[in-house]
Amino acid sequence: MSELESMLVPLAPLSPAQTVNEVGEILLDREYRRFLCLPVVDRGRPVGAISRDEVQSIFMKMYGRELNGRKPIFSVMNPRPLVVDMDQSLDQVGRYISANIRFPITEDFIITRNGEYVGVGHVVDLLGAMQSRLGRANSELTQACERLKSSRAQLVQSEKMASLGQMVAGVAHEINTPLGYVKNNVGLARDLLDQVGRRLAVCEALLARLVSGEADEAEVEASLAEIAELRENMGVEVASEDIAALFDDTQYGIDQISEIVLNLRDFSRLDQAPVDSVDLNQCFDSALLIARNAIKYKAKVIKQYGAIPKVRCSPSQINQIFLNLLTNAAHAIEGEGRIAVKTYADQRFVHVEVQDTGKGIAEEHLTRIFDPFFTTKPPGEGTGLGLSIAYQIARRHNGHLRVVSKLGLGTKFRLSLPLTEP
Ligand SMILES: Nc1ncnc2c1ncn2[C@@H]1O[C@H](COP(=O)(O)OP(=O)(O)OP(=O)(O)O)[C@@H](O)[C@H]1O
Ligand SMILES: [Mg+2]
User: Fold this and answer.
1) Who has greater pLDDT, 179 or 240?
2) To the nearest whole percent, how much of the chain has pLDDT over 70?
3) Is 148 helix (H, G, I), strand (E, B) or coil?
4) Are strands 349-356 and 276-278 parallel, antiparallel or unpaired?
5) Who's near 219: CB < 8 A, 6+ residues apart?
6) Fewer CB atoms inside 10 A, N or C side of the chain?
């Protein structure tokens, strides 16, 4: 059933030849009393509408009835009534009625099918139907908006996870190197201590025999020979400095591992990290450490850090921007190249520039790189979300992210964060 059909009343129409007096009688009928104007139909087609008010004003006055009552309604009807077709949508009908209604609330509309009269409808019903439809559309829109918001949040989260995931392999590698020599050193130290222990045991046994005066010459000689052999077996004289150096080395390895783990922990604070007063030079170093593996065989990093004041920002989010800029730069470099990082400040902003000697960005792509899902990487290699998220993070900090690029020469991104609190 069409929406219009539900409000259709198949009222028997008036004919143009009926007199005003006749119509006055009809108006008293219960069915007709509900309508503010009545359809006039000639040979199946609507030709006008008669206003209840108008007929009544003639009919109720004695002289009026005398004077005008015998006239056909043809002469007093509105020859341009509101007519809508059953096939029209509620929207079309609404638009037509609101554009053509002349007597709001006192006009009703005629409904036709293929130009033939089928009934009438109330404007008030139409308004009601349209209002409830708007309400439904509004709540659907609100729901869709909520769904969009949550899927956007999920996307942002999954991009963070993806970029983190990419780095995990690299970080595992970074940890593996110091871990390797820490393990090695511990094994070495254990061996040494074993041998030292054995030598000590022979020495102590000899000492005990000597103190008690029970040792004879042959016994002392045998013990000394054993000690000499043990010493020989150790190959080199183990100086206490050697052992100290072994432990220093091990300590260094462990420190390196903790540094990486600490950075990783900072970086993986993926929630809305609290705003902090942050030294962007330090922040960039931490991103460099995480991205080291992705960069190391492709680019030499040249740092030109200025003396910049701390800024209020969310360090983990800014870290995410840096990491993205660094991996993008490394990806853009074919063969070997350079990534130059420069930081400086002016009156209002702290700027961080990341410039690479990569392949550059084509002019027609420059306007699109901040769009979500824009990527030139093969499927599975890039989501195209990195820069759009970076852009949003910059905006959320009241800062901006800008780019200049020359095809074949390289690209420079500049992140600017305001000195005042975001
Ligand atoms: N330094 C750069 N040099 C050249 N092109 C770049 C550079 N940075 C970004 N682009 C271009 O911008 C596109 C979008 O970058 P963005 O970081 O948003 O997504 P992506 O790197 O393709 O994918 P994802 O970051 O999800 O892995 C890239 O596909 C690339 O074409
Ligand atoms: Mg990227």
Assistant:
1) 179
2) 91
3) helix
4) unpaired
5) 209
6) N
Kindly report the average pLDDT of the chain as a whole number: 85
Per the listing, tokens 């993070």 go with 393
More confident: 298 or 232:
298
Separation of CA 108 from chain center:
50
Looking at beta carbons, which pairs linking 31-34 to residues 24 or more positions away fall under 8 Å?
Answer: 34/9, 34/122
The residue nearest atom 25 of ligand 1, judged by CA position, is 386
Helical (H) or strand (E) element with 285:
helix 280-295
Q: Report which of 341, 360, 361 is spatially closest to residue 351, judged by C-alpha positions.
A: 341
pLDDT digits (tens, 9 = 90+) for 42-61: 999 999 998 888 787 777 77
pLDDT of residue 422: 42
Cα–Cα distance measured from residue 214 to residue 248, given in angstroms and rounded to the nearest whole number: 44
Task: List residues bridging with 410 in a β-sheet.
Answer: 406
- pTM of the predicted protein model: 0.52
Q: Count how many Cα atoms sit within 13 Å of the Cα of residue 210 in the half-sphere of its side chain.
A: 11
Provide the pLDDT for residue 226.
Answer: 85
In angstroms, the CA 193 to CA 126 distance is: 96
Residue 202 has pLDDT above 70, yes or no: yes
**Which domains are present in the chain?**
5-121 (3.10.580.10), 153-259 (no CATH), 269-418 (3.30.565.10)
User: For the chain, what percentages of helix, strand and coil (3-state, to nearest 5) are there?
Assistant: 55, 20, 25
CA distances from 300 to 164, 250, 281 (A): 22, 28, 18
Residue nearest (by alpha carbon) to ligand 1 atom 26: 383
Pocket of ligand 1 (CB under 6 A): 324, 328-329, 332, 356, 358-361, 369, 374-377, 382-388, 411
Burial class (CB in 10 A: 0-12, 13-18, 19+), 307: exposed
Using a CB cutoff of 5 Å, list residues around ligand 2, an ion: 328, 386
Of the pLDDT bands very low, low, confident and very high (cuts 50, 70, 90), residue 133 is confident
Q: Which ligand is nearest to the CA of 412?
A: 1
DSSP 231-251: HHHT-S---HHHHHHHHHHHH
Question: For residues 389 and 153, is the Cβ–Cβ distance under 8 A?
Answer: no
The per-residue DSSP string of 181-192 comes to: HHHHHHHHHHHH
CA distance 289 to 296: 10
CA distance 90 to 132: 12
pLDDT value at position 165? 67
Q: Which ligand is nearest to the CA of 330?
A: 1
